[in-house]
């Protein structure tokens, strides 16, 4: 049985990778699909192409995982790809309430099922938004994201990381 793990993945986090790795053990094949929403263009730190590249690098060790993108309704993508299972990761009860509504809508309009996989406790507090915030100040995000994401974030925020490293090396802790 094949499944789709959709999201914006801006960037992919260790929580995403945890859910994806576990899903790859359950399903024969999982397609990680970067959903491209034209209305949100300019709201992402990474371009669609960058997110796809990061995901390909981060998932390279998972032979039953592929990476794709789609613009439009997820149920249309599912129909085109002839896939009927959506994977969604949950971190907290607040995620469940939102995801439950989406799952019901997807089932009603697209006849697809959603399988929820709880994020491991150690990743329950990690979100792409928080990771980007920490990285924007040059903070250590290496445990929260796969290497590909960490490298991409360091490139995006190179100036902040350089300033932080200089500040940490000075005796007074000031730059």
Quick overview of this protein structure:
The chain is of the alpha/beta class and 175 residues long. The protein contains seven helices and five strands.
Description:
- It is a single chain.
- The protein has 175 residues and is an alpha/beta fold.
- It has a single domain, classed as HUPs (Rossmann fold, 3-Layer(aba) Sandwich), CATH 3.40.50.620.
- 47% of the residues lie in helices and 19% in strands.
- It has helices at 14-26, 48-59, 74-81, 93-110, 128-136, 147-156, 158-169; strands spanning 2-7, 29-36, 65-71, 85-90, 113-118.
- GO terms for molecular function: ATP binding; pantetheine-phosphate adenylyltransferase activity.
- Residues 4-133 form the Cytidyltransferase-like domain.
- This is Phosphopantetheine adenylyltransferase.
- Belongs to the bacterial CoaD family.
Q: How widely separated are the two ends?
A: 55 Å
Number of domains: 1
Helix content: 40-55%
Overall pLDDT score:
91
Low-confidence spans: none
Number of strands: 5
* CATH fold-type name: Rossmann fold
Q: How large is the radius of gyration?
A: 17 Å
Biggest sheet strand line-up: 3-2-1-4-5
Q: Describe the main β-sheet briefly.
A: 5 strands, parallel
The CATH superfamily is known as HUPs
Proportion of beta-strand residues: 15-25%
Which CATH-level-2 architecture?
Answer: 3-Layer(aba) Sandwich
Structural class: alpha/beta
Q: Return the string of H and E elements.
A: EHEHEHEHEHHH
Shape call: elongated
Number of helices in the DSSP assignment: 7
Oligomer: single chain
């Amino acid at each position: 049985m094949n499944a789709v793990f959709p999201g914006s993945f801006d960037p992919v986090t260790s929580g995403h990778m945890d859910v994806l790795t576990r899903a790859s053990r359950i399903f024969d094949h999982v397609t990680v699909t970067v959903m491209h929403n034209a209305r949100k263009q300019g709201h992402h730190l990474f371009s669609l192409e960058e997110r796809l590249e990061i995901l390909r690098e981060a998932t390279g060790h998972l032979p039953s995982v592929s990476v794709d993108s789609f613009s439009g309704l997820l149920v249309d993508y599912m129909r085109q790809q002839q896939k009927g299972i959506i994977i969604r990761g949950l971190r907290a009860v607040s995620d469940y309430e939102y995801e439950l509504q989406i799952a019901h809508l997807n089932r009603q309009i697209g006849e697809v099922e959603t399988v929820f996989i709880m994020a491991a406790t150690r990743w329950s507090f990690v979100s792409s938004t928080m990771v980007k915030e920490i990285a924007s100040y040059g903070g250590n995000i290496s445990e929260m994201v796969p290497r590909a994401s960490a490298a991409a974030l360091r490139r995006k925020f190179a100036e902040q990381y350089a300033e932080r490293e200089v500040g940490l090396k000075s005796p007074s802790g000031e730059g």
